[in-house]
Amino acid sequence: ARPRVGYFYSGKKPIQSVADGMVDMTAADFQSRPVVITENLSVYDAICQLFLEDVGTLFVVDQQSLLTGVLSRKDLLRTSIGRTELDKIPVHVIMTRMPNIMYCRKQDTLISVAKKMMDSQIDSLPIINEKEGGLEVIGRITKTNITAAFLSLAEDHDL
Amino acid sequence: ARPRVGYFYSGKKPIQSVADGMVDMTAADFQSRPVVITENLSVYDAICQLFLEDVGTLFVVDQQSLLTGVLSRKDLLRTSIGRTELDKIPVHVIMTRMPNIMYCRKQDTLISVAKKMMDSQIDSLPIINEKEGGLEVIGRITKTNITAAFLSLAEDHDL
């Protein structure tokens, strides 16, 4: 459950309007846990991680735990068609690399995050923290989280 | 662009509240085109269709064009790991079958559709028409469509 700082309840129903509720939503309020792998993991092991963790996107980090790549279910499917030696291909060969990675920060509004995902036609963004030398992955936002936010707006206001 | 029956404009901004706008949204307003394949298509050809059409889910129909199954990117990835003979496996072997398919109708509210997707943890629903003997697929709703709806609420009201 996300924190409801600044909400006032009258019985079950918050006084805040749907518009105000929507504007107040941030990436941090609806984020999921990021699943992170290292650059030399094989494509085979990456696919196993994807199923094990039940996510659609994996984030790839270097030895300093800084973001270097992103792997989607689509990337993994493209690589695995008709190939058997998936245990011999390291993920860094097929991943999308920095600086071509879209990301957001935890204080970003969910509206801006939704816009970024729609504009760039991607299903998931890492939430990052700027560190010396790169970006640390601290969360994950997906279209599932936006769907959850849409639904929570409706439910919070008994729509 | 979805029809705006019953909206009144004052300049760019609709007078309707965000709450009313949200309640009025239906599956039909935000749907995508469904991509449909037949039961005997091979898994290999299904994956090609998925990439060609750039969708996350394929709907499988019988010779009467009635819905018999659903195939997700996840189903296809699971099947393709470490196998080469994907052209020899027909999709009906690996698809999720009726009656285990969640679906919706075009007049359903987007709120109810979002709830169905979140409750059943699926990314996409076929929009169907009831026919004698089965269900005809007439559309598709995904979490991308819900994200678009979320964003359009914000943009319609200059949030």
TrEMBL record, chains A, B:
**What residues does the CBS domain cover?**
25-88, 95-159
Q: Which residues are listed as membrane-spanning?
A: none
Keywords from UniProt, A to Z, are: CBS domain, Repeat
Say yes or no: keyword Repeat present.
yes
Top-rank lineage group of the source organism: Bacteria
Write the protein's name: CBS domain-containing protein
